[in-house]
Amino acid sequence: MTTRHADEGGDALTDTAQASLDDPIVAEVRAIREAQFASVGYDLDAYVRWMQAEEARSTHPLIHGAARPPVDREAVPPSQEEPDT
Predict the structure, then answer these.
(1) I need a labelling partner for 28 at 20 to 30 A (CA). Which of 21, 35, 62, 74 fits?
(2) Confidence (pTM)
(3) Contact at 8 Å (CB) between 1 and 15?
(4) Average pLDDT by consecutive 10-residue portion of the chain (85 residues)?
């Protein structure tokens, strides 16, 4: 990942960030989200209610995972620490 700084003639975006701006799938997802949000008048509470109603109507399996318990870093030797994800 290369960072282009504004003083180097760049726009201070990373190549990865620029690629996501140019990605047609990302653009499609953003357009859909914009249309959904516009359909509820840009009201965040209404949007959340709409999303919850859509989730309740959905026939797709939903995955609700439990958070992993925190690791006590002081109790775990460095060689056995969990990798950051």
Answers:
(1) 62
(2) 0.49
(3) yes
(4) 51 68 87 94 95 92 78 68 59
